[in-house]
Amino acid sequence: MWTYRRLLRVSWREHKTNDWVLEQLRTNPMLMKQIRRRKMKHFGHTIRHDSLEKTIMQGITAGKRPRGRPLGTVYTEGGMVEGENICLGFPRHMDIFKGIPFAAMPGRFQKPKPHPGWDGVLKATEYRKRCLQLTLLQTDTRGSEDCLYLNVWVPHGRTVSSNLPVMVWIYGGAFLVGGSMGANFLDNYLYGGQEIADRGDVIVVTLGYRVGTLGFLSTGDSSMPGNYGLWDQQAAIAWVHRNIRSFGGNPDNITIFGESAGGASVSFQTLTPHNKGLFKRAISQSGVALCPWAINRDPRKLAEEIALKVNCPTDEKMAACLKMTDPVVLTKAGDTSLFSSSSSPIVFNLLLSPVIDGDFLPDEPQNLFSNAAEIDYLAGVNDMDGHLFTGFDVPSVNSDVLSTPVEDVKRLLASFTKEKGQLGLDNAYSTYTLDWGSNPSKEMIKKTVVAIETDYIFLIPTQNALYLHASAATTGHTYSYLFSQPNRLGGLALPYPSWMGADHADDLQYVFGKPFTTPLGYWPSHRDVSGYMIAYWTNFAKTGDPNSGDMKVPVSWPKFTTSGHHYLDINARMHKDNVKQMMRTRYVHFWSSVFPNLPSVNSRSRSFTASEAVPVTGPGPSKRRRTVNKNLREFAVEETIGQAQSDIDEKTEFKRVFYSVIDAVQGEMDVRFGERSSELMGALAALDPEAENHFLDPSKVTPLLELTGADAGVQEDVFARGCGVLSNEAYKVVEQKQQPRCSPCRTPTSGAYG
Q1: H/E element holding 285?
Q2: Which residue in 148, 164, 331, 669 has the fewest CB atoms around it within 10 Å?
Q3: CA gap 558, 566 in Å, rounded
Q4: Greater pLDDT, 28 or 582
């Protein structure tokens, strides 16, 4: 016998046609009475087909829903849910659903499973507990293992909304902490979606996912592969795609967005092959998959350390023991050291993170951008994103009294360039101190320290991710931004100095409209910034173009392309000059091109380090990797505006390197290159060190690289010491807007950017 619940479930799961459902209704009078008796005037909203919705609404429930009425009870694949309806001022109102389960309570170190469903109507009016995690002081835990719930905000005007764009939020927190509702102040939750939904006329969804030990611990093999938090996110996105039509959303127009670890999660969700067709657009704020903290490359070591803390063996029985350990004990064992210094930055302590498991992430992130070819992608950073981390590593940056020693700058750079030894440090130091002059001010040194961490942790990886996306894109569009609205407490309270820009997470309050929610805490200019960001973000969610949609924007935002590298500088004073190109060119060039090709101190072979934006893995590049390398090689050349004429000391140094290379190669010429030795000498001779304006002309260097490809030492010496030494002089010319008198310096073809 048919019941209305059975009819809805069968029609949903088996994709029955409108005619089939209507036939069941016509031939089952009792079913019709059930529907009327339960006053299911929303019935049409539970069916995915618009035509069926119209038929049922008119023919069975005796008319359309009256204007201004809430959604009421909504059917999902798990059962009926009912939220609350709030008035926003005539004629606007909004339905809010809190705590809808999108998966069952997860098993320990297992992928999420479908929720079994529930009887009756689920009252979705309260946030559920966040996933089990450490408190900020790491002295206790909070949350629950039963945490896979999401929240939905649905705006309405005079009529009930339908076919609205959908924005799904993924929170940040270093993969260690966080919740779908965010921080709470006087019942005002940070991630409340009301302002975005109302002002942008979009449906907003926020989701919960496992963090810390329970979300990302991995043994590095099939017994505990890891990435459980990413699988939770994927399950929530898939649930939204299957169910959002019942709430008035368009399942074919879903945008995922997130910040910090949430931004990196968004990036991972675009790269995994498991999300084909589930969403159309993505926004990464201050975090991408290429960030040095986004991947743990030695998960086994961390798993063994945690196993020892909870008295588990480290052999083949380790995984089984960990799965039986009390979840609170496991969570506490995953604590992160908050002690750091310029010699040991705190970013290296963030180890509970995603892994390359061969499933969710089947390959290195930089090799997966083809999966995002049809996804519109918008990404950017805050101009002082690294300040939060610098406060731990070099506390003096926040003091008006204490100076920051230059030695702290060197120690910080040494920790980020450790694999390249002294040569890496020297190149990095000369890059970041080029503008210092002979007597840099205290403020300049402090700003430099913040810039180093901002570049290394956020900005450089984001720029590389944007370039790889633009290179791989077919129908997807790419947009880049820099958020530079100064911190509201800059110069007013510690730890924010007077020169403070936008710190890590400063953008969140503006994206979620807090200057409108709590107007007494903000100036009018802050409401301007919030309005701009909501307009750009929701326009992008609707059309894939932040300039096109229902909301006006102050400045037209151009696309990021592999040749243009445009970006938008977002702050309260928006005008045409906020459209810029080549974000931090000198530093992008150094970290993406010069640094990866310096010789490593431990080996002449290339190996991945945290500071490399895009490493090359495996014994030999596949066709796909060669394509990635080609794209990045072009990026490096474009970022190198030109090599300026060197002074006499630099020229003397290069001549010394040049002749030492010739001597080293000529001794083994016949053995190494046989009949091609004459070609090699011709290529070497083309690099005439006696020429008045000697530079590495790409047309002359290419034959040399092709011939010496087997000799990594030659490449490293020529490029790292020859080309690299001259780099800083080039930027003096660029920044003075002079015409460079040289050709761009290419990097070796064997490197990640070569």
Answers
A1: strand 281-285
A2: 669
A3: 6
A4: 582
Question: What does the domain layout of the chain look like in residue ranges?
Answer: 66-278, 375-604, 640-735
Amino acid at 567: Y
The amino acid at residue 608 is: F
Write the single-letter amino acid at 94: M
Minimal CA–CA distance to 117: which of 128, 103, 106? 103
- Please state whether beta strands 84-89 and 133-134 pair in parallel, antiparallel, or not at all (unpaired): unpaired
The partner residues of 185 in beta bridges, in order of sequence, read 188
Equal CATH topology for 66-278 and 375-604? yes
User: Could you give the residue ranges of the DSSP H alpha helices within 178-336?
Assistant: 194-200, 212-216, 228-243, 261-271, 299-309, 318-324, 327-333
Q: Which two tokens stand for residue 50?
A: 């618009």
How far apart CA 266 and CA 258 sit, in angstroms, is 6
**What does residue 751 show for φ and ψ, rounded to 5 degrees?**
-90, 175
| Rg, Å, the chain Cα set | 29
pTM for the model = 0.75
162 — alpha (psi -120 to 50), left (phi > 0) or beta?
beta
Which residue reads 């002979």 in tokens?
A: 438
* pLDDT tens sequence across 323-334: 999 999 999 999
Residues written for the chain: 754
Whether the predicted pLDDT of 519 surpasses 50: yes
The token pair at 410 is 């060197």
How buried is 168 (Cβ within 10 angstroms: 0-12 exposed, 13-18 middle, 19+ buried)? buried
Longest dimension (CA), the chain: 98
Question: Which residues does the annotation mark as catalytic?
Answer: 260, 385, 504
**pLDDT score of 726:** 39
Question: What is the dotted CATH code of the domain comprising 66-278?
Answer: 3.40.50.1820
- Would you state the pLDDT for residue 129? 95
- Asked whether the beta carbons of 347 and 336 are under 8 A apart, the reply is no
* Single-letter amino acid code for the residue at 649: D
Contacts by residues 513-519 (CB-CB < 8 Å, ≥ 24 positions apart): 513/194, 513/195, 513/196, 513/199, 514/188, 514/190, 514/195, 516/195, 516/199, 517/188, 517/192, 517/194, 517/195, 518/188
Look up the CATH architecture of domain 375-604: 3-Layer(aba) Sandwich (3.40)
DSSP code, position 596: G
- Name the residue with tokens 């918008």: 378
How open is the CA angle 231-236-241, to the nearest 5 degrees? 125
What is the rounded CA–CA span in Å between residue 504 and residue 182?
Answer: 15
**DSSP reduced 3-state for 660:** helix
Answer for the pair 697, 747: CB distance below 8 angstroms, yes or no: no
pLDDT of residue 56: 45
Give the model confidence (pLDDT) of 107-127 as tens digits.
999 999 999 999 999 999 999
Phi, psi (rounded to 5 degrees) for 123:
-80, 105
- Closest to 362 (Cα-Cα) out of 273, 263, 287: 273
Q: Whole-angstrom Cα distance, residue 420 to residue 407?
A: 18
> pLDDT band for position 72 (50/70/90)?
confident
Q: What is residue 559's DSSP assignment?
A: P
Q: How far apart are CA 434 and CA 373, in angstroms?
A: 38
Helix (H, G, I), strand (E, B) or coil at 206: strand
The two structure tokens encoding residue 134: 């450490």
Number of helical H runs and strand E runs in the chain = 27, 18
